[in-house]
Amino acid sequence: MIDVDKLLINYHELKRSLGLLEFKIENYEMYRISAERTIEEMTFTSPQGERVSNSGVSDKTSKIALKYKSVTEENNEEHLAELVERYKGQKYELEILDLCISLLEKEQSNIVTDLVISGMNFVETGAKYYMSKTSVRRHYKKAIVELGKMYQNYIPNSKQTG
């Protein structure tokens, strides 16, 4: 089962990470894999496929240049795809959490929103809703249980994570 409390505690970190991933994707040209990294990768990997030994020096040079360009482009495409997948996963995780919070009973939803998203503490939240700190904590704990049930019963793959 998913640890809802941990998701709530890390809410702002998830938002920050999502924003940084979005920036990297939008400005990907700045984050492309460098030529040095490609050369290093090609140096420490062994060639695959057939080898031809009777080619001339200039032919080898052009083959190396083409291979270098191909490997660099492939690495950059894989890196961008990885960033996009991470972004999609984190965005989905936050959207589900926001949706589940909004589906709680109004009082629980408001308390969780104030504590987690707005960053208020239990005393401030209690003052806002004319409750004691203990009552706010009790509502928060009930909300975590309800969120856990939502994840367990309605969210795909949430039973496998933990």
From TrEMBL:
Source taxon at top rank: Bacteria
UniProt cross-references to InterPro entries, sorted A to Z: RNA_pol_sigma_r3/r4-like (IPR013324)
Name of protein: Uncharacterized protein
Taxonomic source organism: Desulfosporosinus lacus DSM 15449
